[in-house]
3-deoxy-7-phosphoheptulonate synthase
Amino acid sequence: VSRDTHPAGSTIQVRGIPLGGNQIQVIGGPCSIETQIQMDESAAGVAAAGCRMMRGGAFKPRTSPYAFQGLGVEGLEMFQTAAKRHNLPIVTELMDVRMLDTFMAYDVDVIQIGARNMQNFDLLKEVGRVNKPIILKRGLSATINEWLMAAEYIAAGGNHNIIFCERGIRTFETAYRNVLDVTAIPVLKRETHLPVIVDPSHAGGKAWMVPALAQAAVAAGADGLLIEMHPNPAEAWCDADQALSSQQLTDLMKTLGAIAQAV
Ligand code: PEP
Ligand code: MN
């Protein structure tokens, strides 16, 4: 994944949408898939805001085993139904290698490896064998080198379509969910030729922090953003505090172009 292999940087295509070129791509959508109506409204909101890809979790890595764990396969079905109407490629998290064939059967466009699985080496090896772009989120306390090595596990299997996603790291600070490591953006852009995106939602953990963090990420050179939105944030089954409404997402999207232009 070293920049030495492609000094000019590389672009990953997701159904014709470029990630890593000079456009900022924003992937919007709910933390978790809840109902068909919620997904239909989310897809409409994401598309109206100008996002070209959609996120949503069917398999959720929750701290408590008693918390909602995601709808599973039934959720993938709802996600595809909603996203297809707006022609939005779908991004969803794979937690278990045993679900990989199902992800392929449901034609998941981008497979997300979550922070908690960044060093699940068997999972990384398996997604290294498929021909789908992979979003590799940074582990909660992973160093840049550990993150790069995790990406090497995927690349070593032949899949070079890897997108790094900085989502905040754990520090001594408790005033927000995680600390967005803005420094990681220029460092990764220098170390690898692959696209780097930022998830300001899981970094801050509060909706009101998301615009500032998203804007900082774009100013620091991020190729895109992964942002949680919900048609009715207060009612979200998971991560309600950090979800933007579709209007808030629309307003944020309007500010990003000028920032990207300026850098
Ligand atoms: C997510 O994006 O749905 C998620 C669980 O994030 P992370 O793995 O970064 O905690
Ligand atoms: Mn979430």
In short: The longest strand covers residues 25-29. The beta strands are 12-14, 17-19, 25-29, 53-55, 90-93, 110-113, 134-137, 162-166, 196-198, 224-228. The mean pLDDT is 98.
